[in-house]
Amino acid sequence: xxxxxxxxRRRSEPVAPMGEPSPDGRLAAGAxxxxxxxRPSLDDPKRPAGTDRPAQPDDLQLISGxxxxxxxxxxxxxxxxxxxxxxxxxxxxxWVDGYLNFRGRIDRENWTGQAAALAKGGVDEYVRVxxxxxx
Length: 135
What we know:
By secondary structure, the protein is mainly alpha-helical. It is about 40% helix and about 0% strand. The chain has helices at about 35, 70-75, 80-85, 90-100, 105-110, 110-130. The longest helix is centred in the C-terminal third of the chain and has 20 residues, at about 110-130. It starts with about 30 loop residues before the first helix and ends in a 5-residue tail after the last helix.
């Protein structure tokens, strides 16, 4: 039997590559991970429209959950302003969430609401709406 005491795999048993059946016929751990993490197509009509880089792009890192790497990725998609993020439809949010592999984080962290406040009145409006400064 390939499973030893306490349900642990014996060290001598080969482990199937991810996504391939193990000796007992089950899929190896992580099966389907490649499909789940596949980025949506850049040609997808649900992708938010990008723009040329403005002379003074907004500091997207003022949106809670956006760090330097995420901001750079958004810029690579032509997303530079709070107004762009604030205007995302649910389909566009889902597309960006999938592209970033964030598993719902954009909605959980309310990026569009944060961006709307920042677009309307900067940090002062953000504080008025959310009761704290952006982090």
